[in-house]
Amino acid sequence: MKKLIRITTVPISLKILLQGQLKYMSKYFDILAVSSNLKELDEVAKIENVRTFPVEMTRTISPLKDLLSIIKLYFLFKKEKPDIVHSHTPKAGFVAMTASWLARVPHRLHTVAGLPLDEAQGFKRKLLLFIEKLTYRFAHRIYPNSKGLLDFISNNKLCPRKKLKIIGNGSSNGIDTNYFGTNESIQEQARELRNRFKIKKDDFVFCFVGRIVRDKGIIELHNAFVSLTAENKNCKLLLLGNFENELDPLPHNITESFKNNPDIIHAGYQTDIRPFLELSDLFVFPSYREGFPNVVMQALCFNLPCIVTNINGSNEIISNNINGLIVDKKDSHSLYLAMKELVNNSDKLKLLSENTRNSIEEKYDRKKQWYLIYKEYVSILNNAE
Asked: What is the pLDDT of residues 183-229, one digit of tens each?
């Protein structure tokens, strides 16, 4: 059986973003999952039924720690002798592709699901561009998970076009459309949440899921919602996710407003977002940069139209005025106008909702995506023999 090593910077990417994929691939390959030494890595081993190995990696620029990660991975690859190393997330991509190139791993693959350099400026942007170029140079194949990312990489000449390929219609893992769908249990949980958070029957509920940070457009979302509630008192904003005060802190006044505004409900990080999607009327995702946002697809599976920014991935999942609305990024006013339009136009909201779930079932079903990734591995191995 051929050996496949999958690598992410932190275990939650293996656990959530690639959920189920390792277990599926383990039917065909000897799988080793590598990530930072956090307790979630042990959970990955149990859930996915694969071997795991801890290698400390940081999400920040840290030359000494990155060098140590490369050394540890180099010795791991020399010992394991994998046929394929496949990395996800920027830092894991850099250290894994560097180490696997040094160890002469025969097939080095990297999936791009977002670029931090999108929002970087000056020296930091130049440094991140250089790191991306190195990652792609050491890799044999690069898999952007959206057309926008492919175009960005190609237009900025980060690697030769022949190295680039989108698997399927995009997305790193597809969506489990059976799991992301309503049922009686979820409906009951949604009713309990409404009671807990004192959400009235006639309240219009906006939902956001993700890290509560600048890059996700949280400042614009806050400002748009405050403007909206100055005119419409029956709106609630439901936030699911954690603040990240060390990596990407919000201004103090925004943080305080989230804490003190009775119309803004911060529910924190949730392992199961389905009941929250069930009770919502509209999903809002004003992110500055993405690869291929799973949470937008998950919301569509609950028949929620989505307001998204005109960025990679989001503008491929959402078709403007078909299953949602697309607004300019970093534009509070256009976001406010889109939110206001759908609050005040129930007919349009209903029309958009009719084109939500089917748009995911047709193009992004999870098992179809897993099969396409498996076929890609087989093709690579067969062409090498």
From this structure: 999 999 999 999 999 999 999 999 999 999 999 999 999 999 999 99
The strand pair at 84-88 and 51-54 is best described as unpaired
pTM of the predicted protein model? 0.82
Looking at the structure, do residues 195 and 102 belong to the same domain, yes or no?
no
Please, are residues 299 and 284 in contact by the beta-carbon 8 Å criterion?
no
Residue ranges making up the domain that contains 97: 3-174+365-384
Mean pLDDT for 275-293 is 94
Query: Number of helices and strands (H, E) in the chain?
Result: 17, 12
Q: Is 59 in contact with 88 (CB distance < 8 Å)?
A: no
Tokens 């959402």 belong to residue: 318
Residues 344, 372 within the same domain: no
Residue where the block lists tokens 């275990």: 11
User: Quick check: 385 pLDDT over 60?
Assistant: no
**Residue 106 tokens, joined:** 């025969």
CATH number of the domain bearing residue 37 = 3.40.50.2000
The first and second tokens of residue 112, run together, are: 């791009």
Query: Would 42 be classed as within a structural domain?
Result: yes
Residue 17 and residue 60 in one domain: yes
**Spacing of C-alpha 310 from chain mean position:** 16
